Amino acid sequence: MKRFALVALVAALLFSMVSSASATELKVRGNLDVYGMWSANLNDHDSDVADGDNYMTTQRMRTYFDYVANENLKAVLGLEIDNIWGSGTSADWGTDGKGNIEVKHAYMDFTLPDTTVNVQAGLQYIALPSVFGNPVFDDDAAAITVGAQINDMFGLTVGYSRGADSSTNVSDTLLVDGEDNDDVDMAFIAAPVTLDGFSIAPYFAYAWVGENAYTADQQTATSAVAGDLLANADEEATIWVVGANAELTMFDPLTFAADLIYGVGDADDYETKGWYAALAASYKMDFMTATLFTTYATGADEDEDEDNYLPTLAEGWGISPYVGGVRAFSTTYDSFGTDNLGVGSDGTGLWTMGLVLDKISFVEKLSHKLVIAYAMGTSDEDTNAFTEDDDLWEVYLVNKYMIYENLAAINELGYFQGSSEAYDDFTGDDLDSSYFATVGFQYKF
Q: Which end of the chain, N or C, is more open, meaning fewer C-beta atoms within 10 Å of its C-beta?
């Protein structure tokens, strides 16, 4: 018995030594939003067409698991669950529906020994530098990035991402060849420079869009400009963009941020080339931060075989719920207004200006945010897009009360009014106002 106890003790010690040598620390972070929404003319902007149900309760949970081996090595898994209460078997009585969990991130993150070179490989978030989210690429993607801080002032990051691969590498059927469809790939390089009171991040991106590259679902999910390139490419298309994001902080609390991007998309029978610019000036006070902003991007041309759009791939641009799709709550929806008016959610074909009053606080734990935005189209009058004769404006208010440090009660109020010559010509009527209100909770952990 004593011999067995001794053997068991030695085995336990050896097991503990092996376990401690390969121990991995698990860290969990994320957020959960649950809220109700009341709305009218939310997407169609037409009071004569019934919305159906003007209320819904929705929620989104994102959870990220960091598997940390040491300060130089970890793996990240990100999951997302979206539910509209009562819609589908995953959010009805029983809540036991399948296929509702989405994988957002799954990547490794490590630093090469004795260097500052960091590598991230897998499903991850990729974003080119920007003020309001980058209109060209700002999304989750399958990618590998390699970045290094060369010195205190200069850094360098290169990356590669695959957007589509429809090939069948190995056929499932005997004596049947696999399908050799082309791919969609994007590579980029960014070289941020940081000085005292000023920083600038120039970058260059290049994408190859191959023949038969996208499945039907992938083509629907891609940007409108990339979709046009695909539709007009008998063999392949290419997209390249060059841009820079800059920040001026030497006059703090008055700060400035700016974007400038130019790009060309070229297919066999179609070409688009255009530019985008953004400028924001912010002044931080004790009780509020005020920001004046404007963006401008070229739009559609009346010629059938060319446009003046900046080519986009996977945009993340937005300034408000109706213009681009930015809200206090995370949501399953994109822009409430611009998509259905022919503008899109990427800021192209649009000139915007507005005022943001953020972090307004006169009472402890209670804060407010007010966005007032106005926009006009920049596309030619004879196109079906949001043209120079069309405009829109929006007022958006957020009220947030911090119940606990990580738990907030949030109320959103949004109002939108737009005009569209194409809609007026088609229906003989103007666009009606759209508005919504939400009440809910947001837990960040």
A: N
Going by C-alpha positions, the residue among 189, 234, 178, 244 that lies closest to residue 209 is 234
Q: Are 144 and 117 in contact (CB under 8 A)?
A: no
pLDDT digits (tens, 9 = 90+) for 3-26: 444 444 444 444 444 444 458 999
What single letter denotes the amino acid at residue 153?
M
Cβ atoms of 104 and 123 within 8 Å: the answer is: yes
Q: Name the token pair of 62.
A: 């994102």
How far apart, in whole angstroms, are the C-alpha atoms of residue 413 and residue 291?
A: 20
CB 100 within 8 A of CB 83: yes
Backbone angles phi, psi at 19, to 5 degrees: -65, -45
DSSP 116-166: --EEEEEEEEEE---SS--SSBEEEEEEEEEEEE-SSSBEEEEEEEEEEE-
Binned at pLDDT 50, 70 and 90, residue 180 comes out as: low
C-beta separation of 348 from 272 below 8 A: no
pTM of the model: 0.88
119 near 110, Cβ under 8 Å? yes
Residue type at 355?
L
Q: Which two tokens stand for residue 46?
A: 């037409």
By C-alpha distance, which of 267, 271, 310, 301 is closest to 134?
A: 310
Residues 181/213, Cβ–Cβ less than 8 Å? yes
Tokens for 265? 């998309």
Query: How far is it, in rounded angstroms, from Cα 76 to Cα 66?
Result: 5
- The residue that leads in pLDDT, 307 or 21, is 307
Contact 314, 334 (CB under 8 A): no
Q: Are 305 and 271 in contact (CB under 8 A)?
A: yes
d(CA 434, CA 340): 12
CA-wise closest residue to 319 among 260, 392, 387: 392
